[in-house]
Design goal:
Helix content: 25-40%
CATH topology of the largest domain: Rossmann fold
Strand order of the largest sheet: 3-2-1-4-5-6
Largest sheet: 6 strands, parallel
Strand content: 5-15%
Number of helices: 18
Distance between the termini: 36 Å
C-alpha cells in the first residue's frame, strides 16, 4: 500500500535471520485485508482549491502548463485528461524529464522538455509566463535553475499528491493537493461549468512570441562527414522505430539528455529513466523488466558506454532468458556529461572522465551468445539499426559517435532560464559564475 500509493516509493521489509531460521506450520488462509496503513494520501482535491485555480486560470494572459512525473504515476487517464485540458485551453505545455509522453510530442502545443537541457522555447516561456499550472512536478533544481530568477513574474499553481513537496523549493500562490487524475477531472468539470474561454487576443500574442523562440531551432545540429553525431544516431533510431511498439530506457548522462531531446514519445510509460537520483546503470536492468512485462514490444536501452558498464553483469540474465532487448550504446569513450561540465564549467581541467580501457562490445556480446554490431561511420548507421531491430534475440549495437560533442541547449549552473547556452558559440560569452561551479 505504501509503495504504490500517493507518491510511489520504495519500502524496506527487514526480516532478521533469527526469524527466517524459525520453523512454523504452514496454514493456507484466505487473504485478509491488511490493517489500515498510517500513510493515507489525499486523492480527492479540495473543491475550494479547484475553484480558486480556475479563477486564476481565467485571468491568465501568458499561461504555461508544466507537467511532471506525477502525471505518469497517476496512470494513463491523467495523460488523456492533460491532452483534453491542453486542447480546451490552447495553452503552451512543457514536460519534465520524468513527464515525457504525458502529452504527445507531435502535439502543436508541446514546447518540448524544459530545464537544464530543455528547449529554448520551453525555458523562455516558463521564464516569461504570468500563470504557471504545475501538474505533478516538484520544482527540481534541474528544472528551476537559479531559484531567485525562476519564472519571476508568474502566479504559480502547484497540483501535487504530496503536501511536503509544496513550497519546498519554490513558493507558490495556490496548492491543490490530490491525485493528478482527480485534479484534472475536477479542473475540467469546473471549467466547463463556468464555460471557460481563454483570452484569445492575449493568447495569440503569447503564441506569436513563442513561435519567435521556436524559430531559433535550438535542437539543430550539423551531421556532415562520416563521424556520427550522437543527436543524429538517436533521431534516426526514433524515425526507424516509428511504426513499432517501442519502450525506451536509458542510463544516465549525455545520451540520456539527447534521448529526451530527439526521441519522440506519444504515450505515457514508454520512457523509463532515472531522474532525481541520476543512477548510472539503471537502463539495462530496467529494460529487462520492461521486456518481461511486454514480451511482444521492441525494448531499447539507449546507453552510454560508461553507464552500460555499471550493470553489464545483467547480460547474463538477458542471455539466460533470451530477452530480445536492444542495447544502443552511444559510445564516445568519455563519461560525457562529466567531461562536458569539466570543459564548460571548470576550464577544461579533465579528471577521471576519460574511458581508457573499454571492452570491445561486439566481442562482449559474443561471450554471452548474443549479437554484437558496430557502427563506425554515418554510412553504417541505418544498416546497423535495421539489423539490430530485425534480429530476434538480444543485440548490443556499439555506435561510435563524435567524442567531444556537447549537449545543448544548456542552462549553466547558477543561471536562470533566460541565460541559456544554445551552442559552442555561447560558451565564451557566458562564463559560469563561481557560485554556479559549486552547484554542479
Amino acid at each position: 500500500h505504501v509503495a504504490a500509493s500517493g507518491r510511489p516509493g520504495p519500502v524496506l521489509i527487514d526480516l532478521p535471520k533469527d526469524i527466517l531460521m524459525k520453523e512454523a506450520p504452514y496454514q493456507k488462509e484466505v487473504i485478509r485485508a491488511s490493517a489500515t496503513a498510517r500513510y493515507q494520501p489525499a486523492t480527492e482535491p479540495d473543491p475550494a482549491a479547484i475553484s480558486a485555480a480556475v479563477d486564476m486560470m481565467i485571468r491568465a494572459e501568458r499561461p504555461v502548463i508544466y507537467g511532471g512525473g506525477g502525471l505518469i504515476n497517476s496512470g494513463p487517464r491523467a495523460s488523456e485528461l492533460l491532452t483534453d485540458l491542453v486542447h480546451m485551453t490552447g495553452w503552451p505545455t512543457t514536460l519534465t524529464l520524468m513527464g515525457l509522453g504525458a502529452l504527445s510530442a507531435a502535439d502543436k502545443h508541446f514546447l518540448g522538455m524544459l530545464g537544464m537541457h530543455g528547449t529554448y522555447e520551453a525555458n523562455l516561456a516558463m521564464h516569461g509566463c504570468d500563470l504557471m499550472l504545475n501538474l505533478g512536478a516538484r520544482f527540481d533544481d534541474r528544472v528551476t535553475g537559479l531559484i531567485s530568477g525562476f519564472s519571476p513574474n508568474s502566479t504559480k499553481i502547484h497540483c501535487d499528491i504530496d503536501p511536503s513537496s509544496v513550497n519546498k523549493n519554490v513558493a507558490v500562490d495556490l496548492a491543490v493537493i490530490g491525485d493528478a487524475t482527480k485534479i484534472l477531472e475536477a479542473l475540467i468539470a469546473e471549467m466547463k461549468k463556468r464555460k471557460f474561454k481563454p483570452h484569445k487576443t492575449s493568447l495569440d500574442k503569447w503564441w506569436s512570441q513563442i513561435e519567435v523562440w521556436r524559430k531559433r531551432d535550438c535542437l539543430r545540429f550539423n551531421q556532415t562527414g562520416s563521424i556520427i553525431k550522437p543527436q543524429h544516431a538517436i533521431k534516426r533510431l526514433c524515425e526507424m522505430t516509428a511504426e513499432r511498439d517501442v519502450y525506451v530506457t536509458t542510463e544516465v548522462g549525455q545520451h540520456q539528455m539527447w534521448a529526451a531531446q530527439y526521441f519522440d514519445f506519444h504515450l505515457p510509460n514508454r520512457w523509463m529513466t532515472s531522474g532525481g537520483l541520476g543512477t548510472m546503470g539503471y537502463g539495462l536492468p530496467a529494460a529487462l523488466g520492461v521486456q518481461v512485462a511486454h514480451p511482444g514490444a521492441t525494448v531499447i536501452d539507449i546507453a552510454g558506454e560508461a553507464s552500460f558498464m555499471m550493470n553489464m553483469q545483467e547480460l547474463s540474465t538477458l542471455s539466460q532468458y533470451n530477452l530480445p532487448v536492444k542495447m544502443f550504446i552511444i559510445n564516445n569513450e568519455w563519461m560525457g556529461m562529466v567531461r562536458q561540465w569539466q570543459e564548460l564549467i571548470h576550464g577544461g581541467r579533465y579528471s577521471e572522465s576519460y574511458s581508457a580501457s573499454l571492452p570491445d562490445f561486439r566481442k562482449l556480446a559474443d561471450t554471452f551468445n548474443m549479437t554484437g554490431l558496430v557502427a563506425q561511420s554515418s554510412d553504417d548507421l541505418d544498416s546497423v539499426i535495421t539489423q539490430m531491430l530485425d534480429t530476434p534475440g538480444p543485440v548490443i549495437a556499439d555506435i561510435r559517435v563524435a567524442k567531444e560533442e556537447n549537449c545543448f541547449p544548456m542552462i549553466p549552473s547558477g543561471a536562470a532560464h533566460n541565460d541559456m547556452l544554445l551552442g559552442p558559440e555561447d560558451q565564451a560569452e557566458k562564463p559560469v559564475s563561481e557560485e554556479g561551479m559549486v552547484l554542479v
